[in-house]
Each structure stands twice: as structure tokens, then as C-alpha cells.
Write a structure and sequence with these properties.
Elements: H1 5-36, H2 44-51, H3 53-56, E1 66-73, E2 80-87, H4 110-114
Antiparallel strand pairs: 1-2
Length: 133
């Protein structure tokens, strides 16, 4: 079957569109790749501050000795930026000093806290039951 002029034009249009999409996708990928490459320049903490300000506060203190590693990934295009935070300094667990089971601890209701009466028991905050043993 010999292609008609219309089929040849559609085929040419498809080739041009495919080439343009390939060009733009490679430009987008290069942009993200250059964005996360901090081998010789830049501070990864600054990029993390832009991506996730809440977690960048963990690295604000120099005593944490944290390092951030970025990578591109995901199932769809454009790729997503993934990161890991590595800490080389020792980490102190604050909960280790008072090992309570915080899931079973109940806070007193506002009525119990702010109502003064003879018939209401005084709330005790220093119960030691439910502690780990």
C-alpha cells in the first residue's frame, strides 16, 4: 500500500512531536539532575530547606553532623526528588530517660482541670503505673 500525502504529513508530524517531546524531557531531566548535584558546589541543606523546611531545621545545628543525599526516582515523568538524611554524630533518645507508655496516658478533661468542687477528685499527674519495666 502506497502512503498518501495526508498519511505522509501525519507521519512527519508524529516524528516532529516525538523529537520535540524527547528534547524537552531530556532538558527537564538535566535540570533536575543539575539541581540535586552538589558534589563540587552548593549546600545541600539549602536545597532541603526549599523542599522540606520542617526537616531542614534538624540540620540547622552543626552539632548533628548531618549529611543529605538526593536522588531522582518515581514511576512517572518528571522524576520526583527523594532524599535521605544521614547523621554521623550519636543520637540521644529523649524517651529513654522516662520510659512511659505514652499511648495509654490520658490527659484530664478541661472540666476536671478547671472545675473546683468538693465532690470532684483532684487529678494526679504523677502516677507511675504503665511504665516500662
Amino acid at each position: 500500500m502506497i502512503p498518501t500525502d495526508e498519511q505522509q504529513r501525519e507521519d512527519a508530524v508524529r516524528r516532529i512531536q516525538r523529537a520535540w517531546r524527547s528534547f524537552t524531557n531530556s532538558r527537564i531531566f538535566r535540570y533536575f539532575r543539575d539541581l540535586i548535584s552538589f558534589h563540587d558546589r552548593g549546600d545541600p541543606r539549602e536545597l532541603l530547606r526549599i523542599i522540606n523546611p520542617a526537616e531542614s531545621s534538624f540540620l540547622a545545628d552543626a552539632s548533628t553532623a548531618g549529611v543529605v543525599r538526593f536522588r531522582l526516582g518515581g514511576d512517572t515523568f518528571p522524576p520526583m526528588i527523594y532524599y535521605k538524611i544521614f547523621v554521623s554524630a550519636p543520637v540521644q533518645d529523649i524517651g529513654a530517660f522516662a520510659p512511659r507508655d505514652y499511648t495509654k496516658e490520658k490527659m484530664p478533661t478541661p472540666g476536671q482541670l478547671h472545675t473546683v468542687g468538693v465532690d470532684q477528685p483532684v487529678p494526679t499527674h504523677h502516677k507511675k503505673e504503665g511504665w516500662y519495666r
